Queue: 4 jobs
Job 1
Amino acid sequence: MANRLRAAIPGMCVTGVTGGLIGFFMGGLVWIIMITLVGIALGAIIWNLGGQRFFLWVTGGAVLGALMAIGLSDMEAALMGAAAGGSIGGFVSVNLGILKPRKSP
């Protein structure tokens, strides 16, 4: 069990930071802590279900979205660009997984 949690640290970090940012926008320390913990739990679950590629797409999308927002506007738009890029990266990852041909039994 400890090895599985240790292996899931990257996923826990991605969704934990995302949860913390959502909690920040909801307002207050209680929300930040509560939603960060929910994000960490979801990250561990998704990672252990084989979502490593999903997290790579989300992280790449967030970085590209932030860079594009900074290039088009200013630093204040970076957070919104990262959120939009991360969600699009997750969307692309899920759809690529759906379109991938399955092996017949």
Note: The chain has a mean pLDDT of 86.
Job 2
Amino acid sequence: MFARDNKMIGIEPQLPLRDRVRDLNTKAYYLLVALSFLYRASAPSYLLKLALTLTALVAVLPVLDYVESMAVLAGIRLFKVIGLASALVFTLVWIWTAL
């Protein structure tokens, strides 16, 4: 699957750029709508705001288009996993403290 020079080979072909941009635009729109309702909420829910902001940062960023090295891609994936796990922890703490 990978060559000796750490380049990715044998991966599935990506969708055309226009389709990827449209999908990203749709995700970003729904994310912004959800965040706008949350940030205008009267109750100070900082943990939930932090969780959704982390989720937005790590889930929406299209890094595969910009990275060609497997080592860098593995580091970014690790950052995304840590960010999503942190968002989950913040969400669970928010749920437990909101009760």
Note: The chain has one domain: 17-98.
Job 3
Amino acid sequence: MKDKYLHTFRRQPDPAFANNLFQQIEQLPPASTIASSPARRTPTRKIRLAWAIATLLLMLALMAMVPGVRARFEDVLKQVGQMTIFMTEDNPGFDDPNIVPDEIMTLEEARQQVDFDFSLPDWVPEGLVLQENDIRINDIIDGLRVQWLDENVRGRALNLLISRAMPDVPYIVGPDSVTELTINDVPATLIRGGWYPEEDKWKDDGGRAIRWQLGNVVYHLSTGNEDFGGLSDQDLIKVAESIAPASPVD
């Protein structure tokens, strides 16, 4: 997000909010006191992720408290389906691949690496093949990325991002880019377009994604422009509906 937010909104947040936030941060164990394990992501990375989330929450709190900004802030912070959506014209920078590189592994290794259970689709369109030796783990999203490719049709691909639910952290999109729908009677969000870090803006390029939550896991299923090999809306919804909860939903 652009630096103007940090320099313009200078009023202090509510003291109770700030104290509670930093008490939670201080309770995180030092990385030096925890032995690392190859089977799980290292505690140091989790601490970095916690700091990033805390910074975002504090920034949003500061923005919401500035007179004259609060009304506009409420206009762009919306509940769509189960997701809290923050709409802005400013690229947050989270899609920059240079922030934290992915760890590439097999599907079996990925299931051991993340500390939550997840499901994959029971159905995908014919021709799409799961790239089970190219599963990507990323600490920023606290989850993994899975891909299906069609070797015979250029540009035909399906991507699935699976992450732990973080209900207090909004998902950041461009203006007028979301629509509410349901997946197996579960509220979901249809998102059109995406962030273009090199252009520093959101663009509706014909790509679509469906984002919804099952239990404590968020699924983000996406495909490219249908004119260039992407799935149709009907097929994208059908794939999403074939994903069952990994464990009973409370």
Note: Residues 195 and 202 are 4 Å apart (CA to CA).
Job 4
Amino acid sequence: MTFGYANKFLTFLVFVAVTGSAQTKLPNTPAGDTLRTWLEVFNSGDRRKVEEYVRTVDKSESVVGLLSFHSRTGAFEVLSIESSEPLHLRFRMKDRTGMITLASLFVKDGHPPTVETFAMNPIPPGATPINVVLDADERKRVIEGIASTLTEYYVMPGNAQKMVTALKAQSSQS
């Protein structure tokens, strides 16, 4: 990364941090900073900002996909932080239509942090989401059960092993 590019990106992140919304306080962690950046970029609907975000923070996204999603949902507002760790956030947010979404963001630490996974699950109107908390032993049993079932029954064994490996890697990070 050249010094000029680093300065441009740092200026971009400072702009995002300063102009971020006054919603629920987001943690000052790599995950919180990344969510703050995503909200500023996504909520703006500005193609140039979205292009910069995709190029530097979340290469798995597409500019067209994010802009299309923005045209359907408008801006998001974070309602609550369900859990917070330096590289992982679970949170609820609401779009302009009033749809509540439960989301989970995992980032890789770096300069800047980059998105590893960003999952959003809309909650249907009238539904009451259940927040299940598993202790470490229960979590391990659930993951082993899923891995065992995938290994035994999945149609393509090679893909089953890839999913088991990814599941175990993800569970070791959270």
Note: The chain has two domains: 3-123, 136-173.
